[in-house]
Amino acid sequence: MRTSATITRPPTPVAIRMRRLVSLALVHAVLIGGAVFMLLPFVFMLTSAIKPPGEIFEATFRLWPRQFYGWQNFESALSTAPLLRFLLNGLIVCGGILVVQLLVAIPCAYALAKLKFPGRPILFSLVLLGLCIPVQAPSLPLYIAFAELGILNTYLSMMMPFFLSVFAIFLFRQFFKSYPDEIIQAARLDGVGEFEIVWRIVVPSAWPAIAAFSIFSVVAHWNDLYWPLIVVSDTKLATPPLGMMYFADSELGSNYGALAAGATIITAPLVIAFLIARRHFLAGITMTGIK
């Protein structure tokens, strides 16, 4: 009596290609759907900035208005609110915070990654624990300290709590761990000091990580409303989100087109900065994430 065995045939090249195409199509469909979902608020903001008030909340959504009202909305936003002053304040605050964060975090990360000293694992554990502390936790002690020092309503009061970034230390430490020890040892044999090794040898190779962190830092502090709202009461020192809150009242409260135009002006620098540094940003995230 003969038994018939089932023979499994390998998939043909056409079938393999079709499976790959179907999987790629599904992945791209999910990514495109997520991108559309995230871009919808920005599309609504841009279209509202060029629409007259009567067309913004119509039942049917239109990308292009029947009557172009962009010039009037942007002129109203710029004339009613000192948006350029808010942008300047945002640049000063974000730039000052970023510079000090880099000056502090890079040597700390280098020490944790390349120097051997007692207590290094404990210090790194404290850095990781620092990532778990929300920024709201030390707000009251910091406010009392700044009030005692008399530095409320200043740029320094908005910047000082963020000069030390544990996230920057962690990110740069992961990047520096992969830097070749042979190059550092050769520099030490040539009599080069540790600070010179950091700034002249290690840092030039860390620009992708620096660009990635710079994007994170600028976006976080440009959009920060919580801390400036606590320490600033002078309109001339308002950052972009705080400034928009000051002027979203009876003057512009009913003019949603002007508010959308103001939000567009405030959002534009972040978009431009990301488009300029996007390659370094993606390279930094990839290189620090696979270590």
UniProtKB/TrEMBL annotation:
<feature type="transmembrane region" description="Helical">
    <location>
        <begin position="21"/>
        <end position="44"/>
    </location>
</feature>
<keyword id="KW-0813">Transport</keyword>
<feature type="transmembrane region" description="Helical">
    <location>
        <begin position="197"/>
        <end position="222"/>
    </location>
</feature>
<dbReference type="InterPro" id="IPR000515">
    <property type="entry name" value="MetI-like"/>
</dbReference>
<feature type="domain" description="ABC transmembrane type-1">
    <location>
        <begin position="87"/>
        <end position="277"/>
    </location>
</feature>
<feature type="transmembrane region" description="Helical">
    <location>
        <begin position="122"/>
        <end position="146"/>
    </location>
</feature>
<comment type="similarity">
    <text>Belongs to the binding-protein-dependent transport system permease family.</text>
</comment>
<feature type="transmembrane region" description="Helical">
    <location>
        <begin position="86"/>
        <end position="110"/>
    </location>
</feature>
<protein>
    <recommendedName>
        <fullName>sn-glycerol-3-phosphate transport system permease protein UgpE</fullName>
    </recommendedName>
</protein>
<keyword id="KW-0472">Membrane</keyword>
<dbReference type="InterPro" id="IPR035906">
    <property type="entry name" value="MetI-like_sf"/>
</dbReference>
<keyword id="KW-0762">Sugar transport</keyword>
<comment type="function">
    <text>Part of the ABC transporter complex UgpBAEC involved in sn-glycerol-3-phosphate (G3P) import. Probably responsible for the translocation of the substrate across the membrane.</text>
</comment>
<keyword id="KW-0997">Cell inner membrane</keyword>
<feature type="transmembrane region" description="Helical">
    <location>
        <begin position="158"/>
        <end position="176"/>
    </location>
</feature>
<keyword id="KW-1003">Cell membrane</keyword>
<keyword id="KW-1133">Transmembrane helix</keyword>
<feature type="transmembrane region" description="Helical">
    <location>
        <begin position="256"/>
        <end position="277"/>
    </location>
</feature>
<comment type="subunit">
    <text>The complex is composed of two ATP-binding proteins (UgpC), two transmembrane proteins (UgpA and UgpE) and a solute-binding protein (UgpB).</text>
</comment>
<dbReference type="Pfam" id="PF00528">
    <property type="entry name" value="BPD_transp_1"/>
</dbReference>
<keyword id="KW-0812">Transmembrane</keyword>
